[in-house]
Every structure is written in structure tokens, then in C-alpha cells.
Amino acid sequence: MTSKKQSSFFNACLTCLLLLTSLQIAYTSISSAEDLPVFTLGVIPQFKMHRMHAIWQPVIKNLEKRTGFKIKLIVPNSIPEFEGRLLSGEFDFAYMNPYEVLLANKSAGYLPVAFDKSRKLQGIIVAKKNGDIRDISQLDGKDVAFPSFNALGASLLVRAELKDKHNITVNSRYLRSHDSVYFNVVQGNISAGGGVQKSLANQPSMLQSKLKVIYKTQEVSAHPFAVHPRIKKNISQHFYQALLDMSQTPDGLKKLERIPLSSISPAKLTDYKALSNMQLHRYYSQ
């Protein structure tokens, strides 16, 4: 065999070897990806769907890198749908309001694992900035909008305090999301609306400028991440550690702040027991 033919033969073999190696690497990568455990994360839908995914998908991707397992984000179309699926135990992990964790613990055994201890949840009532409503006393007998029947800060706390503390009866209207409540108040379709500070802060500045806060409820512990009892303890601990590590990097914290979470602390069921004394079941709809 001539030197030229030997060289061509060698190059051909080398090409085949590189091709086989590439295919093996690709196959191994695909197999590894398919072998990763998959866990679901259900999230309470506080905003329109495109905004929810814009907020949560970067968080999910970061958590997947840190945990080594796949996380399937589930954002139901409405808060009642989310609650139904949560209370039936569908989600492996879930991000929910504080009252829901008490209900989910009772119905499906969920336990809180993480929350932002530095934040508190507080309901607010907003009215149109240049409108006639200046004080909650003017809301008696008026139409007031809420994102859902069972939203804790934006609905349960607000309705409970209006009735129990101020003896004010309103005509409640349920509009499926915080965004819809704020929009309809600005449009003058409703006298006032229930919300929370974080959802108001996430509204476009133009819309915020047309609203005023006329009432604030008492504060309660913030939204927790909770885990279903079928998830092994080491997986739950790994999930918590990934959240904590994420919060301690500038890029990770920036992503979490859009939820918003500014710090991560371990959560216990006792962090939410005070809610049991408020008798919110009188205003909650199954």
C-alpha cells in the first residue's frame, strides 16, 4: 500500500472513530436525561399565564441544575383548580398561600419546607386613584372584586376583616386573577378590589399610578414551598438546599425576587398555626 493510500485509510478510520465516539456521547447524554427523576411543582396562579411562566421557568431551570433532577412546572388556569389539585395530592412540591398549607396538610399530608421569613403576607384594598372611594366605610353595599374566593391575602383576610372588624358588607365579585382585579378597578368597572402588595408591585407602572391603597389587613407568614409525604426526606432536603444556594448568588436571587422571595428559610407547620385562630373557614369555599 502506497503512503498516500495509507494516509487516506488512516484518515477514514479516524473519521469513523470520531463519528462513533460522538454518537456514543450523544446516546449517553440522551439516556442520562431520560433516567433523571421527574418531580412536579404546582404553583398558585397569581398572574396571567404568560407572566407566570416568565417568572417561574428561569427558577425551574436553575433548580434543575442544582438538584440534578427534572422539575415539571404546573400552573393551573385558576386558583380553585390549583386548590382542587393540591388538596387531592397531585403535586410533589407546591408553592401555595399560607392558609392552603394548613388545608393541604390536613387533606394530603403536605408539609412546608421553605419560605421567606423576612416577608409577611398582607391583604390590601385598592381603589381608583381619582375616584370617589377614599375610605373602606364607603364600600358598604358596593361591588368589590377579588381574584378568587379563597385567595388568602387578597380575599379571605380582606373579607374577614371588613365583616368582623368593621361590620362592612360588600357584594363580592371573583375575577380569577390579581391582574384582572386591578385592571377592572382602574377601568371603573368595580368600586374597589382586594390584592396583595407583591402582586400590585408587579403591575405595569402606568396601571399602578392609577390605583391607591385604602386599607391593609394584619400580616401573616408568607407563602411556603411544601412537599407531599410520598417524596423521600433526602429529596426534600436537596430541594430546600437548592433553593437556599440559589438565593445566595446574585443571579439566582434576581430570579427568586420576581416571585418574590428575597431570602430562604426552613419552614415548619407551626409557622402557620396562628391562621387557625382566625376562623377563616367561615369565608373559605370548598
From TrEMBL:
User: Under what name is this protein listed?
Assistant: Phosphate ABC transporter
Task: State the organism named in the record.
Answer: endosymbiont of Galathealinum brachiosum
Write the signal peptide boundaries. 1-33
Q: What is the lineage of its organism?
A: Bacteria, Pseudomonadati, Pseudomonadota, Gammaproteobacteria, sulfur-oxidizing symbionts
Which domain of life does the protein's organism represent? Bacteria
Q: Which UniProt keywords apply?
A: Signal
